[in-house]
TrEMBL record:
Protein name, entry field: Ferredoxin
Database matches in Pfam families: Pyr_redox_2, Reductase_C
Residue ranges of every copy of the FAD/NAD(P)-binding domain listed in the record: 8-319
Species in which this protein is naturally found: Streptomyces kronopolitis
Keywords on record: FAD, Flavoprotein, Oxidoreductase
Residue runs in coiled coils: none
Cofactor: FAD
Reductase C-terminal domain boundaries: 340-427
Length: 428
């Protein structure tokens, strides 16, 4: 039973944490809500950090989830700039870096993820960057502008979403850009080999150089400044700055220390805190949501959720925070959304719905004009069931793609490829 004297604590002030706090109040919870975050900024959204904000098109103020004054109005107690350093699930306490001990009735871990670091010589040089926080984006924005002015060279390690979005931003400032990627195509682990080439062409047309099949082995510097990078195939590329965009790792330290169940990091699930479909961890009073949580994945409606997946995307934090808040309030609210994400690069806007990593699908079918980057791609399993869909510069189809995935119905590749057959006509 939840009553007005209870204390709900949220560790992590990203989108999932902020939305959970908002939902607790929206659902009428009148007890204490305490939000703890090791960052000093109020909770903000990260997608603009590699897009509008990095490009200088969006103001700093536009990234925040709520106005700072909202937290006081909603009686959310904020502990900003304070890490939660110890969790005791037996005593139901969480201790902050400054020694403050907080007793909770329910706890939400929304600790997100942190950039993976390059483990090579030279990573301590001043020109080596990561992009996760507002402060990183502020710094990178200045770096890109000065590289653009001075004809400087940015090397990006990793052709994932963040690497590619930063490549697009850097080109818009006029910087020289080389992307070094171990796989043979960009976004290989998400799109497979079939469609990564779309993004290679897009970026090459905008002047980005790619070096595929290689990994950085050294960042060469002089007097603390970056001069070049070396790759494992013996090549050297000039560089004034380097962005390590080689993925993110879930921030599970607190959960691990508290003995909560985690998902194996070595598999394809991406590790994370194991939660059930209500986002409850192995401790009945502790929940997890957003980038840090590995929740059961169900694609087709009637399929068994036999695998857990950590979804590192905005929509998952946006919906997962509120779902966890409702579950903390004892509501029977499952979090059963299909993975979804979006990206903007140059004039290309794409959305991806579902989950179809290489090895899981039998074929890819496209409708529309792939060369003109106006198309929808469908990843099908051996029975013709849709696992994932990506719409590139085609608006308003993501919901239908989700319904087709959920239906679990076998689809005719010819009909999927035919632009004259409305996608909605394929719904059972
Ligand atoms: C540059 C960038 C661009 C992105 N673009 C897109 C996009 O275009 N589309 C898309 O779908 N997704 C995108 N994402 C992903 C999306 O932003 C994330 O999925 C989302 O931020 C996850 O929210 P979260 O609240 O789970 O975690 P986070 O946003 O990581 O927030 C977690 C917070 O908890 C804090 N914290 C961690 N541990 C502790 C602790 N022990 N004590 C106190 N505080 C702690 C962290 O410092 C952080 O502030 C992007 C991410 C980045 C970094």
């Amino acid at each position: 039973m939840v009553d007005a004297h209870q204390t709900f604590v949220i560790v992590g002030g990203g989108l999932a944490g902020a939305k959970a706090a908002e939902t607790l109040r929206a659902e009428g919870f009148t007890g204490r809500v305490i939000l703890i975050c090791d960052e000093r900024d109020h909770p903000y959204e990260r997608p603009p950090l590699s897009k509008g904000y990095l490009l200088g098109k969006e103001e700093r103020d536009s990234v925040f989830v709520h106005e700072p004054a909202w937290y006081a109005q909603a009686h959310i107690e904020l502990h900003l700039g304070q890490p939660a350093v110890h969790l005791d699930p037996e005593a139901r306490t969480v201790r902050l870096g400054d020694g403050t001990l907080i007793v909770y009735d329910r706890l939400l871990l929304a600790t997100g993820a942190e950039p993976r670091r390059l483990d090579i010589p030279g990573t301590g040089l001043a020109g080596v960057h990561h992009l996760r926080r507002l402060a990183h984006a502020e710094r990178l924005r200045g770096v890109l502008a000065s590289l653009g002015r001075d004809n400087g060279h940015l090397v990006i390690a990793g052709a994932g979403w963040i690497g590619l979005e930063v490549a697009a931003a850097a080109r818009s400032y006029g910087a020289e850009v080389t992307v070094v990627e171990a796989a043979p195509t960009p976004l290989h682990g998400v799109l497979g080999p079939e469609l990564g080439g779309v993004f290679t062409d897009l970026h090459r047309e905008h002047g980005v150089r790619f070096h595929f099949g290689a990994e950085l082995t050294e960042i060469v510097g002089q007097d603390g400044m970056v001069l070049a990078v070396r790759t494992d195939d013996g090549e050297e590329h000039p560089a004034h700055d380097v962005l390590a965009a080689i993925g993110a790792a879930p921030r599970t330290a607190l959960a691990e220390q508290a003995g909560l169940d985690l998902v194996d990091r070595t598999g394809t699930s991406g590790g994370g805190i194991a939660v059930d479909s209500s986002l409850r961890t192995s401790d009945p009073y502790v929940y997890a949501a957003g980038d840090v949580a590995a929740a059961p994945l169900t694609l087709a409606q009637d399929a068994p959720a036999d695998t857990r997946l950590r979804v590192e995307h905005w929509a998952n934090a946006l919906n997962g925070g509120p779902a966890a808040a409702r579950a903390m309030l004892g509501q029977d609210a499952g979090h059963d959304r299909l993975p979804y994400f979006f990206s903007d690069q140059y004039d290309v806007a794409m959305e991806y719905t579902g989950h179809a990593p290489p090895g899981s699908y039998a074929q890819v079918v496209c409708r529309g004009d792939v060369a003109k980057r106006e198309f929808t791609a469908f990843w099908l399993d051996a029975d013709g069931r849709l696992l994932a869909g990506m719409n590139v510069n085609v608006p308003d189809v993501a919901d239908t793609l989700g319904q087709l995935i959920r239906s679990g119905a076998p689809l005719e590749p010819g009909a999927l490829a035919d632009p004259d057959v409305p996608l909605t006509a394929l719904l059972p």
